[in-house]
Description:
Blueprint: H1 2-32, H2 39-56, E1 58-63, E2 75-78, H3 85-89, E3 97-102, H4 111-118, E4 121-123, H5 128-145, E5 148-151, H6 168-176, E6 180-186, H7 188-191, E7 202-208, H8 222-237
Parallel strand pairs: 1-7, 2-5, 2-6, 3-4, 3-5
Antiparallel strand pairs: 6-7
Helix pairs in contact: 1-2, 1-4, 5-6, 6-8
Amino acid sequence: MLLIDILRTWLWTIPVVAFLTSIGGTMSLIVSLFSSTGRMQHQIARVWARIVLFISGVKVTVEGVEKIPPGGSFVFIANHRSFYDIPLILPQIAVQFRFLAKKSLFSVPFLGMHLKRAGHLVVNHSNARESLRSMSDAARVIQEKEVSILLFPEGGRTYGDLEPFKDGAAYIAIKAGVPVIPIGVIGAGKILGNHGRIIRGGHVHIKVGDPLYTLDMTLADLKTLTRIMEERVGELIGQTVVASAPENVGV
């Protein structure tokens, strides 16, 4: 079975996904010449994600999308276990959102081009000043462009346990005055885990939690909101955060 998974990954899934990414990136570039809002590029990305999941043999069950209030903008937060988390979430949430991506991803052929032209934001985890600027930019984008933001508050892909959340998502939500929508992704690590080299088909369960409203909050509530976000995502995936981080600034 392992040999079959390896052969399917390297002879089928990866080449086809790379081809689809090149096609999607090219379409995103062409569309961006006529639309600067990123909205059409987002729709292209959703179609790309659905096809990637189909090619990879991944089935998704979604629960709780009716909890997302109609209209408005949000800060979506989710646990992060796999490279597949973005294509897993993209088709399930019928809301225009952008995400903060590592600087290195903007250098990936076609993918980086799409990220730039679709209005996604760069985040540099290694530089506190640049990280703070990214958070402020995200809050401004939410307010000015009336779109939502997706973040993985653990700060990167992690293993099984839920890691302490960084304060960036709470900062953005409070500054923009928008609700936080927690999302729990269960089973993504089995599709393609952290540092994994084999893509396995399978089933992923996505749960959407109740909104956390921030209109009455100030930055003095930052730590409290971050802790509540940890608890809500933990409840959705059936885990608790492993420990509290003393220095938790960033995204």
